Amino acid sequence: MAPRTRVNLDNDEELNTAAWAATRGAVVGAAKWGIFSAVAGLLAYQFSPIYRGLTIQFKVFLQMSGMVTGSMIEADRRLRWHEDLVRKQKKLAADAEVWRRYREEYVNEAAEAQLRNSSSK
Predict the structure, then answer these.
(1) How many domains in the chain?
(2) Contact (CB, 8 A) for 37 and 66
(3) DSSP secondary structure, the chain, as one string
(4) Do the domain assignments include residue 4?
(5) pLDDT value at position 92?
(6) Is residue 87 domain-resident?
(7) Nearest-CA neighbor of 79 among 7, 12, 13, 19?
(8) What are the pLDDT digits (tens) for 52-92?
């Protein structure tokens, strides 16, 4: 088995775009779920004497739990969407290459046939 070599991942465009898609998803998910957690916390504070009796540390933990969960869910969703997009782009590029080669071969064969016909006259 060949030994591992160090690879510079900073120059991998596909990896960088995937990382940015996941990062944007994490930020959006944390914001959305954070707002939901804050509203739920306000409602719980308004209507629940149990919630009002909790320590501030536990309330912060509950808020952060919602934000972390939301960021994970949204980052995963965006990353899966990005993966599907990249897969479709690669398939489209591969199909375009097949068609390009086919067209090139067809044009070359037509040119050779025309050359043979003109030289046989």
Answers:
(1) 1
(2) yes
(3) -PPP----GGG-HHHHHHHHHHHHHHHHHHHHHHHHHHHHHHHHHHH-HHHHTS-HHHHHHHHHHHHHHHHHHHHHHHHHHHHHHHHHHHHHHHHHHHHHHHHHHHHHHHHHHHHHHHHH-
(4) no
(5) 96
(6) yes
(7) 19
(8) 999 999 999 999 999 999 999 999 999 999 999 999 999 99
* Dihedral of alpha carbons 52, 56, 60, 62, sign: negative
Q: Are the CB atoms for 79 and 23 separated by under 8 Å? A: no
Token pair in block for residue 40: 């739920």
Instruction: Domain of residue 18: give its range.
Output: 14-120
Q: Residue type for 41, please?
A: G
Q: Does residue 9 lie within any of the structural domains? A: no
Whole-prediction pTM value? 0.72
- Evaluate whether residue 99 is within a structural domain: yes
